[in-house]
Amino acid sequence: VSTPLAASHRGTIGLAVALVLVALTVVALGTTGGLYSLLGTRIAGHAAPVIEDVPGPETGPECPLDARYVNEEPIGLRPDVLAAWRRLRTDAERADVRLCLNDGKRSATQQQREFDAAVEKFGTPELAAQYVLPPEKSMHVKGIAVDVQPLSSAGWVEDNGAALGWCRRYENEPWHFEYVQRYVSAGCPDLLPSANES
Ligand SMILES: [Zn+2]
């Protein structure tokens, strides 16, 4: 028997079900990053990349200067950082110095994998963090850091990189450089003991 009151109740229930479905869809898309892409697509015409999700190469060709290292492609670096890396490499070549990019961009997933492997190896997250940073702390995940090898080439970057915004940051990582535009005018900050103690 359909009274007007019952029909109105059914309408309310139907609306509630629809709202729950919409909410669940939003949650599902948000969890997978789909919502971000969806919104990005609507506003900008293409999905805005989340830099932390952009992977870098897992490996690369052998560094011609030292077979212990690779020379990977600078894929996934933030665009301004990539441009700065190319300028650095060009300047180095002019000085007859070859820079091998032993490691550049990593995604949060790649960094997490390295961190998990370190936890496995060293036993606890605290010990692992002395050797590998968790994703939220790594400048490689943010796409602004490069590891330059061999060390003789890294030494050239330490002496000459600041003019282009590249600075060594840590006492215990002579190969690790970060690009920050203001370093060009401000110069490099003091070295920190390690990335963990920053
Ligand atoms: Zn590094």
Please tell me about this protein's structure.
With 198 residues, the protein is α+β, with helices and mostly antiparallel strands. The protein has seven helices and four strands. The chain has a four-stranded antiparallel β-sheet with strand order 1-2-4-3. The longest helix is centred in the N-terminal third of the chain and has 29 residues. It is elongated, with a radius of gyration of 24 Å. About 7% of the residues have low confidence. Zinc ion binds next to strand 2.
In terms of topology, how is this protein built?
Layout: H1 4-32, H2 34-44, H3 79-94, E1 100-103, H4 108-122, H5 125-128, E2 145-149, H6 151-160, E3 166-168, E4 176-179, H7 183-186
Antiparallel strand pairs: 1-2, 2-4, 3-4
Bound molecules: zinc ion.
Summarize the structure.
By secondary structure, the protein is an alpha+beta fold. Helix content is 45%, strand content 8%.
Salient structural properties:
alpha+beta, four-stranded antiparallel sheet, 4 strands, 45% helix, 8% strand
Helical coverage, percent range: 40-55%
- Enumerate the strands of the largest sheet in spatial order, edge to edge or round the barrel: 1-2-4-3
Overall 3D form: elongated
Low-confidence stretches: 30-42
Q: In terms of structural class, how would the helical and strand content be classed?
A: alpha+beta
Order of helices and strands: HHHEHHEHEEH
User: In total, how many beta strands?
Assistant: 4
Task: Quote the average pLDDT.
Answer: 86
Please report the distance between the alpha carbons of the first and last residues: 71 Å
Largest beta-sheet characterization: 4 strands, antiparallel
Bound molecules: zinc ion
